[in-house]
């Protein structure tokens, strides 16, 4: 049986294009020219996914999404905003209402179909398993195939309770859920938001959700969409610094003891970790302060000549110009 997509847009040309393209991709479609008509069709048809514009007459896409999420019979239907509005606040509003994705116009139809396919596959993975005597793993995979944001939003949308274990090399982080809300995160000595943000910085790894694994304490009250926004903002800035710095597997040592001794208390917390044996990544991993703040401090130490690399790779052509890098980083 074909999956049905409900398309809501006040532009008839967009409706025709999307409907024709999605039918070629193997889906059934239904259409609505405004939010009110879409809401009625959704309640009658229970489509497998909703694709809706934001700016529509009678009822806009935000209100449509709100009503869909507030109705238990339609609350779990995947919802994608399709709109000409690309501002960050619009995205935050849409995701905060429970939307699963946000595609800005102009769009390429291959992008739309790819995102629809990804979300519907994710929903298929999350269908309740058959009853079992022992707790079973509900969801597992590779972050290269399903990114962490999608995994977390899936667990939120399906109101899961349990622990998500994420493994990256020899590091193991856990994010705990209670009825779809994130209530705790742990990574080595780190807990709560800092553990969450450090885990979100990982570019690869394996994940596994276990509904029998529960948090001992509730330490996070921040909504998941706000956590993701902050976490991925930090991750993006961290990756920019990482690209501008030497390889993170290089060992650091103090090169100017006098400057190091005069550093501020926050900087001292990082400088004390630099012992001529730890790599840049080691220092970030054990730092008592936020990982992004630690990375920024290390960048500054290198720029000011307070620390240096113990041994440069043979293909490195002289020292980096950190003044130039600093300028490039903010261009």
Automatic annotation (TrEMBL):
Annotated Gene Ontology cellular component terms: cytosol; protein-DNA complex
Annotated keywords: DNA-binding, Phosphoprotein, Transcription, Transcription regulation, Two-component regulatory system
Pfam families: DUF4388 (PF14332), Response_reg (PF00072)
Ranges annotated as spanning the membrane: none
GO molecular function: phosphorelay response regulator activity; transcription cis-regulatory region binding
Occurrences of domain Response regulatory (ranges): 4-120
Gene Ontology BP term (one): regulation of DNA-templated transcription
4-aspartylphosphate PTM positions: 53
Keyword Lipid biosynthesis: no
Protein name: Response regulator
Organism expressing this protein natively: Vecturithrix granuli
């Amino acid at each position: 049986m074909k999956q049905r997509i409900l398309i809501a847009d006040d532009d008839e040309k967009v409706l025709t294009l999307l409907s024709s393209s999605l039918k070629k991709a193997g889906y059934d479609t239904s259409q609505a020219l405004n939010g009110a008509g879409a809401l009625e069709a959704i309640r009658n048809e229970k489509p497998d996914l909703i694709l809706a514009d934001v700016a529509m007459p009678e009822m806009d896409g935000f209100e449509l999404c709100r009503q869909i999420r507030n109705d238990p019979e339609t609350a779990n239907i995947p919802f994608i905003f399709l709109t000409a509005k690309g501002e960050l606040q619009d995205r935050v509003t849409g995701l905060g209402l429970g939307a699963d994705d946000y595609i800005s116009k102009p769009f390429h139809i291959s992008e739309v179909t790819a995102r629809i396919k990804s979300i519907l596959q994710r929903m298929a993975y999350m269908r309740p398993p058959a009853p079992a005597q022992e707790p079973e793993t509900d969801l597992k995979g590779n972050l290269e195939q399903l990114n962490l944001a999608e995994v977390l939003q899936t667990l939120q949308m399906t109101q899961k309770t349990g622990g998500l274990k994420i493994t990256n090399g020899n590091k193991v982080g856990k994010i705990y859920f209670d009825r779809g809300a994130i209530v705790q995160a742990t990574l080595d000595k780190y807990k709560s938001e800092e553990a969450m943000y450090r885990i979100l910085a990982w570019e690869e790894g394996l994940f596994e959700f276990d509904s029998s694994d529960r948090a001992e304490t509730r330490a996070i009250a921040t909504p998941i969409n706000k956590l993701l926004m902050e976490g991925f903002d930090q991750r993006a800035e961290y990756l920019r610094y990482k690209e501008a710095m030497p390889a993170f597997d290089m060992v650091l040592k103090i090169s100017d003891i006098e400057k190091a001794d005069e550093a501020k208390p926050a900087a001292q917390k990082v400088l004390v970790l630099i012992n001529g044996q730890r790599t840049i990544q080691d220092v970030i991993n054990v730092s008592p302060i936020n990982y992004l703040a630690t990375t920024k401090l290390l960048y500054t130490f290198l720029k000011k000549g307070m620390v240096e690399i113990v041994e440069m790779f043979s293909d490195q052509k002289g020292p980096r110009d950190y003044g130039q890098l600093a300028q490039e980083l903010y261009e």
